[in-house]
Amino acid sequence: MGRGTQVAQRQGRTVTAQCVMVLGTSSGAGKSWLTTALCRWYARQGLKVAPFKAQNMSNNARVVASHNGLGEVGSAQYFQALAAKVEPDVRMNPLLLKPEADTHSQVVLLGEVNAELTHTPWRDRSEKVWPHIAASLDALRAEYDVVVIEGAGSPAEINLMDSDIVNLRVARHADARCLLVTDIDKGGAFAHLYGTWALLPPEDQARLRGFVLNKFRGDAALLTPAPEMLQARTGVPTVAVLPMWWQHGLPEEDGVFDDRSRASGAVSKTVAVIAYPRISNLDEFQPLKNVPGVRLLWARSPADLAGLHAHDWVILPGSKHTSSDLAWLRAQGLDAAITQHAEQGGPVLGICGGLQILGEALIDTHGIDGNAPGLGLLPVVTQFAADKTVQRTRAKFGALRGAWSALSGVSLSGYEIHHGQTQAHTAMAAAGQLAHEVMPGLAWQNDAGHVLGLYVHGMFEDPAVLHALFGLQVPTLETVFDGLADFLSQHMSADVLQALIEKPQ
Fold it and tell me: Which of 28, 52, 305, 443 has a CB 3.0–4.6 Å from the CB of 454, allowing a cystine?
C-alpha cells in the first residue's frame, strides 16, 4: 500500500496503523534512542507517526494532554512524540511507574496518580491495567499511519513472561514487526542476541525482522562472519551496525548519568548537579551539555564539589521523595559542601524538590513525603498537599539580583509536577530575613542574590533562558531529532525501514 493510499484511508477512518517495535537485549541497549530516531525518520516520509510504550519506569516525566486536560508521561515518549512532529498525549505511555523507594513506586495510569494501583502487588496489577494499555494502543492505531513501539528491559525475562504487559503481549496485540537492539560496547552482543531469540516462543521469534548492533567502535568489517553465523542459526539478519555516538543531544533516559559528554571548547563554567538517589527530571539538564565551555558534573560526594570556583553553579534538581534525598544528602556530607559553596557567594539553584531542600523546613501532615529541616539557604517553608500539581507553565521572572540577575524579565515556558506548596517563612521575614518572590508562587531568591529556587521544570530547554544566561544559541531539539534521523539513514537501509511498515498484500 502506498503512502497516499494510507493517508486517504486514514482520513476515512479505515486504516489501522502498521506497528514497528524496538526490543532490547537489556536496559540501556538503545531502545529509546532508536525509537526516537525511527519516529523522526518515518515522520520525514510524510507519515503520521505516534510513539508508544505500554509501561515506563522512570522519574523523568513530562506534562502532556490527557482526556481530563493534562497528565504525566515518561519523558522518553514526550520527546519521541516531538520527534514524530505530533502532540504528546498520555495514551503514548499509559502506565508510568515513578520509583519512590527500592521496593515501591507511585503508579500513574493515563496521566493520573492511581492510589489503588500504587498499593496493588505488581503481578496483580498487570491484568487490571492491560485493558487500558490495549485501548490506548488501539486508539493510536486508528488515528495514525505508523506506531513506533518501545519495549522495556528485555523480552526474554522468562520469570516475567506470564505477567508481561510491555513486550511480547504488546507485540502480539499490535502484530508488530520487531527490531532487537543490543549494546555491543558491553561485550557479548552476539550471545545476548542469540540468547534472547532462543528464549522467545516461536511465534515471537517470527516477529523479529532484524538485529541492531548499537554503540560499535572500530571497523565494522571486523564483525564478519558473526552476523552471517547468527543469521544462519536464527534466520534473522543484522540490519544495522550503529557507531558509538556520545553527543547526539537526546536527553538522558531512566536515570542514566553520562559523565563522558562534554560541550566543545575549553571549560569556563562547571555546573554540578546533585545526583541523589530519587532524582527526577534529570533530562532537563541535557541542553547544558551543548553549551560551549560548560562542563556538566553529576555530584555524588563532597569531593565532587571541592574543586568548584566561585562562579561555578551547584544545582539541586527535582526529587521523587524529597525528605529521603535530603537525608541521603546529609549522610554524604553534601549539605555542608553546598552550604560552603553558598557562603562563598557561589550560585546555587534549586528546582522543585531542590527548592524545597534549600528552604527552612518540610512539613508533611498527609504522610506524602515526610517532615525534615531543610538546608536553610532560602527563608521559605514547604508544606506538602494531598493534591498533586501537574500543569504546563509560562511565567516571567521579575527583578533578580546577584548571580541570577541575567534572568530578570525573561519569560520561561516549562512544566510543574509537585505536591509541595512553598511560601516565605513569616517569622524570618518579620525579622528581616526576606525571601524575594521573583516569580509569583513559583520562584524565590535570597537577599544576597546567589541562591534561587523555583518550581518550574525545563528552564534550560527554553532558548530565551539559555540566551540570557550564556548569550549563545544552542542546538534545538529539532536539530537533535533531525540528526538522529540522518544518522539512521547513514547506517540502516531505507529498504529495511520501509519493509517494516509495508502493509501485507
Answer: 443
For the whole model, what pTM was predicted? 0.84
The CATH code of the domain at 3-247+481-499 is 3.40.50.300
What pLDDT sits at residue 286?
85
Q: What's the N-to-C CA distance of the chain in angstroms?
A: 8
Rg (CA), the chain: 24
Return the percentage of the chain with pLDDT > 70, whole number.
93
Length of the chain in terms of residues written: 505
Pairing of strands 18-24, 146-150: parallel
Residue 5 has pLDDT above 60, yes or no: no
Pick from 26, 93, 24, 111: nearest CA to 53: 93
Name the band, by pLDDT with cuts 50, 70 and 90, for residue 9.
Answer: very low
Buried b (16+ CB within 10 A) or exposed e, 324-348: bbbebbeebebbebbeebbeeebbb
Q: Are 3-247+481-499 and 269-474 the same fold in CATH?
A: yes
Q: What is the DSSP letter of 91?
A: G
Specify the CATH architecture of the domain 269-474: 3-Layer(aba) Sandwich (3.40)
Ramachandran bin of 208, using left for φ above 0, alpha for ψ from -120 to 50, beta for the remaining angles? beta
The residue ranges of every structural domain in the chain are 3-247+481-499, 269-474
Does residue 340 have a pLDDT over 90?
Answer: yes
500/342 Cα distance (integer angstroms): 55
Per the CB < 8 A criterion, the answer to whether 50 and 208 are in contact is no
pLDDT tens string 38-48: 999 999 999 99
Tell me which residue has cell 505516534: 50
Q: Identify the pLDDT of residue 194.
A: 98
pLDDT beyond 90 at 386: no
Residues with catalytic function: 352, 457
What is d(CA 284, CA 457) in angstroms, rounded to the nearest whole number? 7
Alpha helices by DSSP H, listed for 206-321, are: 226-234, 302-306
- pLDDT higher than threshold 60 for residue 257: no
Q: 225 preceded by cis ω (within 30°)?
A: yes
Q: What is the DSSP letter of 89?
A: B
